[in-house]
Amino acid sequence: MLRLAHGALARIGSRILEGDNMPTAKKLANIGYKTFSSSMMLLTVYGDYLCSARAYHYFQPPSSQCQAAEEQNTSGVL
């Protein structure tokens, strides 16, 4: 009885290891490539966002608060 159970477990184990459930090296490589490509795409989009936000603030005219502070600083100097 024990020998029969051991043989059945061995067959099940070999089917699991050699069956369709195990991803092949090609599938694993494809998953890794897609994951890496997706992360690089997201990093590129985020970098573009940061660059455009900085350029937007750079080209904006000075706000009224900055102008008021500048006028206050220069009004005391003779």
Automatic annotation (TrEMBL):
Protein name per Swiss-Prot or TrEMBL: Cytochrome c oxidase assembly protein COX14-like
InterPro entries in UniProt: COX14
Designated gene of the protein: LOC101333684
Keywords: Membrane, Mitochondrion, Transmembrane, Transmembrane helix
GO cellular component: mitochondrial membrane
Membrane topology, from the record: Single-pass membrane protein
GO biological process: mitochondrial respiratory chain complex IV assembly
Subcellular location: Mitochondrion membrane
One Pfam family named in its UniProt record: COX14
